[in-house]
Amino acid sequence: MIETLWEDYRIALRRFIQRRVSDPDLAEDLVQEVFLKIHAKIGTLNDRRRIRGWLYQIARHAIIDAYRRHRPTEDLSETWPDVAPDDVPPLEILAACVRPMIERLPAAYRDAVFLSELEGLTQQQVGHRLGISLSAAKSRVQRGREQIKAMLLGCCRLEFDRRGGLLGFESTEKGCERC
């Protein structure tokens, strides 16, 4: 049975594998590996009419395994490089600007935003802590966020990637004493 499969599918499987790996030697090795797996697992095949799909499934798994084995790796240095100021992510730099902006908010918004954003409380917990309704807490947090956004946009030009992640920023002509 294996000899028949070898004769019938060897060339087609080699072509299938060569289209997915760039190294011809690796492709030939994978063909051999596939037939070794076929030989070892032929007893698990229940329906002989589905042998072609079964062979290609084994080939696909062999290709995936080969890519996992040959994944390029990079050796890590024994010493960690110091983080230069230019290496600090822009979000971390900009985050340092936010706290002073929160402190400049009117007291009602400042307390709500501080508890929600810096303390990590839910808006329901913010309402309970401040002795206000959930609706009032949501409103104060939202309005405080809008005011901080306006302050940020007033002193910085922000650049975002297509997913909304911060790529960078620069101070505008008005400048910002913290940024």
What fold name stands as the CATH topology of the largest domain? Answer: Arc Repressor Mutant, subunit A
User: What is the arithmetic mean of pLDDT?
Assistant: 82
Uncertain ranges:
none
* CATH class term of the largest domain: Mainly Alpha
Helical content stands at 55-70%
| Shape by Cα distribution | elongated
Q: Strand content of the residues, in percent?
A: 5-15%
| Spatial order of strands in the largest sheet | 1-2
Query: Got a strand count?
Result: 2
Q: What is Rg?
A: 31 Å
CATH superfamily of the largest domain: Winged helix-like DNA-binding domain superfamily/Winged helix DNA-binding domain
Largest sheet: 2 strands, antiparallel
- State the distance separating the first and last CA atoms: 74 Å
Number of helices: 7
SSE string, helices as H and strands as E:
HHHHHHHEE
Structure class? mainly alpha
Task: Provide a short characterization of the protein structure.
The protein has helices at residues 2-18, 24-41, 51-69, 90-103, 107-118, 123-130, 134-155, and strands at residues 156-160, 166-171. It has 179 residues and is mainly α.
Topology:
Elements (H helix, E strand, L loop, with lengths): L1 H17 L5 H18 L9 H19 L20 H14 L3 H12 L4 H8 L3 H22 E5 L5 E6 L8
Antiparallel strand pairs: 1-2
Helix pairs in contact: 1-2, 1-3, 2-3, 4-7, 5-6, 5-7, 6-7
